[in-house]
Amino acid sequence: MMARTIPDTSHTNRSSSLDDKKVALVTGATSGIGRSAALKLLKKGFVVYGAARREDRLRELARDGVRTLRMDVTDEDSMREGINTIIDDAGRIDVLINCAGYGVVGAIEDVDPEDARRQFEVNVFGPMALVRLVAPHMREQGEGRIVNVSSIAGKVPALLGGWYHGSKFALEGLSDCLRLELEPWGIDVSVVEPGPVKTEWPHIAQESMEETSDGGAYAEMAHAVAESVEFKHRPGMVSRPGTVARVVVKAATTERPRTRYAVGPLAKLTVLLRRLLPDRAVDFFIRKSYKLG
Question: Is the pLDDT at 236 greater than 70, yes or no?
Answer without folding.
Answer: no
